[in-house]
Amino acid sequence: MREIKLADDIFWVGVNDRTTDLFEGLWPIESTGISYNSYAIKDKKNVLIDLAKAFKTDDFLNQIAGIFPPAEIDYIVLNHMEPDHTGVIRTLRMLAPKAEILCSPKAVPMLADYYGITGGIRQVNDGDTLDIGTRKLSFHHIPFVHWPETMVTYDPKTKVLFSCDAFGGYGALQGTLFDDECINIDYYEKESLRYYANIVAKFATPVQKAIKKLEGLEVGCIAPSHGLVWRKSPSRIIELYAKWAEYGTSGGEKGVTLLYGSMYGNTEAMMNAVAEGIAAGGITPEIFDVARTHTSYMLPALLANRGVVVGAPTYEASLFPYMTTILEKAALKNIRNKKAVYFGSYGWSKGALKKTLEMTQPLGWEFLENLEFAGAADDDTIARGYDLGRRIAEAVR
Fold first, then answer.
1. What are the angstrom distances between the C-alpha of 91 and each of 29, 52, 66?
2. Strand 305-311 to 339-346 pairing
3. Assigned fold of 251-396
4. pLDDT in tens, 14-61
5. Which CATH code, of 1.10.10.10, 3.60.15.10, 2.140.10.10, 1.10.443.10, is assigned to 5-249?
6. Among the listed residues 320, 324, 326, the one whose alpha carbon sits nearest the alpha carbon of residue 294
7. Do residues 164 and 199 make contact, with C-beta atoms less than 8 angstroms apart?
8. Is pTM, for the whole model, over 0.90?
């Protein structure tokens, strides 16, 4: 294989995954793929930092063999126990029997639970170091970014931070590993936001604490477990994560996410009027049909935009089921402090608005006004919808 060097004696030995359709069995990546970034340090001691998903074992072992034989690995650092980081550990353990596994104390029982591994493990506490010859690696716990056992590894010699899931993103690597070689950096930033909204958003406070904690390290390169390695502008991805974490309190940017569902076209007709009003108010809304769009793609917009429009009909005296699903996901990911409005059609009974307010009240969503109408909206009601759109745009601006 061609050696891909991050810095002095540090190599990328990861693999790309373009066949998994759902990350964590939940989030679609069939059109983007994902990378499992692993890193090898060749010093007086040979170190492997983070691994890969089990079905990529052969590819992964071939990558390692290009740097050093697996039997010569001295240490395996597991920053995080999720199986996309550790899936090859059983096979690797057989090929590298002398290698000692280093992980946080909370990862030790997980090694037993997931893989039946109970020996050859060294617990590393927050701030511990490991002398491997010409450098001392240090370990820093960042619990709940995004599991409780998560830590990062830092090499002070090269100033590389192996950041695990922190600062990661979706997207298999498209021929380049580094941010300074990437032609389409906007794509990776967008997929990093989707990854953050899908995977990490619930843990905004731990993310902020981790960023604050790591400020004491002089970081010249961020090497996450997924996505680009940021060696030219490591501050860029840190700034993005800090901004996204702050959305939980600020409510987000001056934008509007318009979620809608429609059974017979009546709520959709109103959606078009509301969207026109939002645009007239100076904002281009991000519009999603909740019945036909996976929640993975709606969550980033919900997180990032301060304004939310919920447009959904009443269904069996409650909320249109697909709208219920996305609001449940928003609650799960702790998407808070939005300015919102509701509109929707009803037939023999109301109920959608009541359910919407019940679901979003714990999240601190402020509903400025709402518009329910029976059956199909007449011209006057359509005009009210247009005005509703203008007012939510003005409110978030």
1. 26, 11, 17
2. parallel
3. Rossmann fold (3.40.50)
4. 999 999 999 999 999 999 999 999 999 999 999 999 999 999 999 999
5. 3.60.15.10
6. 326
7. no
8. yes
